[in-house]
Amino acid sequence: MRGCRPLTPAEAEAMYHAYTGRYRLRDQALHVLCLTTGLRVSEALSLRVGDVVKKGRIVRRVRVVRANTKRAMAGRTIDLAAPARAAIQRQVEWLLANGFLGRDQFLFRSQKGDRPISRAEAWHIFTVAAQAAGIDEDMGAIGTHSWRKTFAEQVNRHFISLLMAGELINPMLETSRALGHKSMDSTEKYLSYNTSASQSALRHLEEIHGYGMA
To answer: Which CATH homologous superfamily contains domain 9-138?
Structure first.
């Protein structure tokens, strides 16, 4: 959604606790995954159980295949922060407990059948939770793209803090890489609102979204 603003850490946490109902664990997992990886909603919804579970354990890095990336020539590999792995673990256990077995099962299965929830369904889920959390849209429009913009803003701020602390890094370049952008021009649009570096950002996101472990 063009023009969406990022969420504040407090808003992100309030939304996490606002998801309710039979599919609460699924919705919380999608929320935390997108916030801590910067995946586009379409990329996240394409994931299957076999993508995130290897040898009975949740993977630390997940491969997003080429067919599901936006105008990309190849897939990309994303690090999964601890809160995302914990939320995915709970969702996988729910799928197993409810008879939705198999590596080809969609991780974010729709209640409408053997398919993932659509982007429209994800938007509806996001909107309902945002309203329940009392998030003020007068501060700017929000939508599922707010997840990716939140990720962009948080990692960029972290990279800037590393630069100010003396690290020899380019915050904009590192943020662009974290988002999987081909051009920093695209990254600048994400920030229009007021490797060792990547791993450091991962730890930073784990601190912010530690509530996802519960």
So the answer is: Intergrase catalytic core (1.10.443.10)
